[in-house]
Structures are given as structure tokens and as C-alpha cells.
Specification:
Layout: H1 2-18, H2 25-48, H3 51-57, H4 75-97, H5 103-119, H6 129-173
Helix pairs in contact: 1-4, 1-6, 2-4, 4-5, 5-6
């Protein structure tokens, strides 16, 4: 659910920061619905289909990626996540590159590119447990703790700047006043 929230907030933030319309609103809507339906189908698959049958249905034998802690999505879902992420990065990137470039939207774009790059490590599932944990670390720690923090920091910076601008406007209009202690 948080990913859908981030997706929507990015689509709200970037056009305002870039001072132009979103590059392709239709692409954004299509990718949103594909992502939502794929996520719902994955959850339903986990709830309604035995794990071994789910692995067979999603062709896990071709590219075995299921069964790893925090990376247990079926291969077809992982491919869908990458496609949606690349389309999202393209849409956001084209909006930023053809509009005004600010620190907020460039940090957000850097985070989104890192999101796609570090998630690709989840496709590699070596037989050696040491290599497995090494590449698992890239996804779990660099992806979640590094890249998502860039995305969240840019979103938080946007919200805080907008909040401060609103407070300054209200103070100038006299709508609110600050209490002064002696």
C-alpha cells in the first residue's frame, strides 16, 4: 500500500516541481492499474494456491527466484515490477528533463533509478549461500535502507517546503500570528 502512496505522491510532486505537465498521464494511469492488479493477483496467489503449485504456474523453474527471504515474489511478478518501475522512471525522467530541475526532483529521480537497479539483484539466485547473501544484501539493505530513504527524503523535503510556504503566506496575510513570550 505504501508503494501506491509513493507512486501517487511522485506523480503529484514532479509536475509541480518541474513546472510542467506530466510527460504521459496515460502511461502513468496504465502502469498504476497494471501494478495494482499484479499486486492483487500475487497476494491472491499466495492466499489461494499452494506454494509448490504457485512456483509451477509462474514458471519458477526457468528463473528460480522464489523462496528467498524478503524476495519471494514469483518471477512473473518481479518482471512486472521491473517493467512498471522502468515506465515510471521514463515518465518521471522525461518530465524532469524537459522541465525545471530542482534538488528535490533530481534526488527523487536518483532514488527511482536506484530502486530499479538494485531490485535487479533479486533475479540472481546463486547456488553458493555466501554469494546468495551477498546479492541479497544489495536488495534488502541498499535497496530498502538506501534508495527508499532518498525517495522518502525528497518527498519529505517537498512537503516541508510547501508547509513552510503556506505558513509564511498566512503570517504575511495576518491570518495567523505567532505568540511571543516575554
Amino acid at each position: 500500500m505504501a508503494i501506491i502512496w509513493v507512486y501517487g505522491l511522485c506523480l503529484l510532486l514532479i509536475p509541480e516541481e518541474a513546472e510542467r505537465e506530466l510527460f504521459s498521464p496515460i502511461l502513468a494511469k496504465v502502469m498504476f492499474w497494471i501494478f495494482l492488479v499484479a499486486g492483487a493477483l500475487t497476494i491472491l496467489g499466495y492466499l489461494l494456491v499452494p506454494y509448490a503449485r504457485l512456483a509451477e504456474l509462474t514458471m519458477n523453474d526457468l528463473l528460480p527466484t522464489m523462496g528467498r527471504e524478503f524476495l519471494e515474489q514469483p518471477t512473473i511478478t518481479k518482471i512486472g515490477i521491473v517493467i512498471v518501475a522502468l515506465a515510471f522512471i521514463f515518465n518521471i525522467g522525461m518530465t524532469v528533463l524537459t522541465g525545471r530541475k530542482t534538488v528535490i526532483n533530481l534526488v527523487l529521480l536518483t532514488g527511482l533509478v536506484g530502486l530499479a537497479v538494485f531490485f535487479l539483484f533479486s533475479f540472481y539466485n546463486p547456488d553458493n549461500i555466501v554469494l546468495d547473501k551477498y546479492f541479497w544484501w544489495f536488495v534488502v539493505h541498499l535497496w530498502v535502507e538506501g534508495v527508499w530513504e532518498l525517495i522518502m527524503a525528497s518527498l519529505l523535503a517537498y512537503v516541508l517546503i510547501k508547509e513552510r510556504v503556506l505558513i509564511v503566506k498566512l503570517l504575511k496575510n495576518g491570518s495567523i500570528s505567532l505568540l511571543r513570550w516575554p
